[in-house]
Structures are given as C-alpha cells and as structure tokens.
Amino acid sequence: MERPKKPAAIPVSPIQPTPQVSISDDNSRVTATLPTGQRVEILLYGATVISWKSANGRENLFLSDKAVLDGSKPVRGGVPLVFPVFGPPKPDHPTGKLPQHGFARNSRWEYLGKSSSESSTLPNSKGDASVKLDFGLSHSMIDSSKWDYSFNLTYSVTLSQDNLGTSLVVRNTGSSNYDFQVLFHTYLAVDDITQTTISGLEEAAFIDKTQAAKQVEPANKPISITAETDRVYTLASEKPLTVAEQGEPRYEITRDMLSDVVVWNPWMDKAKGMADFGPEDGYKKMVCVEAGSVSAWNTLEAGETWEGGQRLKTL
Fold first, then answer.
1. Portion of the chain with pLDDT greater than 90, in percent
2. Within a 13 Å sphere around the CA of 151, how many CA atoms are in the beta-carbon half?
3. How far apart are CA 315 and CA 247, in angstroms?
4. Residue 5 above 70 pLDDT?
5. In 25-129, beta strands by DSSP E
6. With 0-12 CB in 10 A as exposed, 13-18 as middle and 19+ as buried, what is 12?
7. Which residues of 200-247 form beta strands (DSSP E)?
8. Catalytic pick from 59, 290, 301, 304?
C-alpha cells in the first residue's frame, strides 16, 4: 500500500574534490596537487620549492639538472629561502659565522600541516581553489653556536589555480633584539632569456654586483638580460613586476613588505664554473627575480613579529 504523501527527498550536495597532499616515502619532500591539476613540490631541506606546475603540466620554475637534492647542500633552482643574511656575511657582524645566504636554505624544516580554502558549492565547481602548506624552523633546530638568537620561523607555501604564494613569519622569541635580512631566491623558467624582459623596476636605482657594487641610477626602461647580471634594486615600489617573453606577459610578481628585488642570471662563463648548474646552457632558460629585504638590516625587537611574502602569478 502506497502512502498518499511521500516525504520529499533530502537533497545531497555532491562531494567536491579536494587538494591532495602527500609526503614522500623517505620523508624528504611534500607534494600538493589541486583538483584542477596544478602541482607544487617542496623539499624539507631548506623548505625549498623545487617544482611548480600549471594545470597543463608546464613547469614554471627552473631547477638545475645538477641540483643536489639529498640535503647535503643548498638547492640550485626552485625557490631557496634566504635568512637571516643575504650574500656572504661580514665577519664583524652577528651573522659573521654563518654561511652565505644564512641557514634557512640548508636546514631541515618541519612540515606543520595543510589548510584548504573554501570553494564554490555550485555543481560546476572544480573543488577547493587553493591549499596552504606550512613549515617551521626554530632556534633548537640549528647550530646556535653560529647565530645564538631565539627565533621561530613559519614559512607558508600557497598553491592556487593561477598563482603560487610564499610568505615568511619571523618571531623573536627571546629577550634580545636582532637584525636580519630575507629573500625569496626565485628561479623562474623561461623559454629564451634573450627574448625575456622584466617590467616594474624602471624607476628603481640598483647596485650592480658585477661592477664592484657600483650604484646605478634608474634605467627608465624594462630590463633585458644580455650578459651576466647580478643587480639589487633598492627601495623599489611594491607595484607588480611583469616578466614577459617576446612581448607577451608570462609571470606577474607582487610583494608585501619586500622593498628590494634581486635580478640574477649567471650567463655563459659563470654557469660553466658552477658545479651544480646544468645544463651548461641552462642560463638561457632561467632568470632569477628575487623579492626580498636585503639592502639594509631589519631589526626585530624581543617578542616582536615580522611578516612578508610574494605571489607569483602565471599569465
């Protein structure tokens, strides 16, 4: 016997796909993939991003084919993290005992976990729009005989459908103030460096490290790379930077609390002299556009926190 009035069926929302995060069997790297296909891979040594792929599989970061990934030396390529000193430290500075570019890029970090953004519940939604991976490094995890200050670093890598964000939170957990510098040493992949330009730094002066740190006035034109290039653009405005190939924009870089930009390409002779750079003509396929705060020291008082970051967007 049928009931005259059946209760209405309760609608069930479709299960939305979510980002997939995995840790390698040897516990050396973390990989995240969005439902739409974008992918990022981070080596726990240095918390170094070593791959960032678009949904179509295109790699956006240059990684040397001779890069050492076993945790014995910093990675040549990807996005190494520079902290608390940029370049070789001066012997009479508190960072004087540290290696070039500090300890962040050659310390093993702890993976702290993931979080996903809210996504649309519409039927056509392709699932969560982004995933954030957090990594931690603290005073007890490094050789404090070389830099004896109490700190806690939280490094976040956020993968979205068309961009990759990297941000760093520095906490002074001790009773003494200290100075630091920070830089995201980003190696961008390009098809042909001779057809690549960088816009957004036209009005910024720079230090030319290929000419004995000569101070150079603003060029008032986009940057083209035609030889070894090692420049620190100082006090650059935080307007977006654009990396274009054959006049077509490929990447946009936005910065927060990072007033300096380093532009680097080793070119032919220097590339040949680096044991971990390959292939030999790999300099044609990369350009480093590095957001940082390195032209002066940032002083972090006891108990205080500093935060800065960048966003790399594919165009």
1. 89
2. 28
3. 12
4. no
5. 29-33, 39-43, 48-53, 81-82, 110-116
6. exposed
7. 206-208, 214-216, 223-224, 229-233, 241-245
8. 290
- Which tokens go with 212? 């004995």
Q: Would you place residue 101 in the very low, low, confident or very high pLDDT band (cuts 50, 70, 90)?
A: very high
Of 110, 185, 217, 301, which residue is the catalytic one?
185
Query: What is the mean predicted confidence (pLDDT) over 192-202?
Result: 97
Listed residue (52, 296, 286) closest to 183, CA to CA: 296
Query: Residue type at 260?
Result: D
- Classified as helix, coil or strand, 139 is helix
Contact 75, 105 (CB under 8 A): yes
Burial tier of 214 (Cβ tally within 10 Å: 0-12, 13-18, 19+): exposed
Has 185 been annotated as catalytic? yes
Average pLDDT, the chain: 93
Stated pTM of the model: 0.92
Joined tokens for residue 312:
């790399």
CA distance 70 to 61: 19
Beta bridge partners of 173: none
Q: How far apart are CA 44 and CA 49, in angstroms?
A: 9
pLDDT at 121 over 90: no
Q: What is the DSSP string of 262-297?
A: EEEE-HHHHHHH-TT--SGGGGGGEEEEEEEEEEEE
pLDDT of residue 235: 77
pLDDT tens-digit readout, 17-41: 899 999 999 999 999 999 999 999 9
Active site annotation includes 202: no
pLDDT (0 to 100) of residue 154? 98
Instruction: Report residue 56 as tokens.
Output: 């179509």
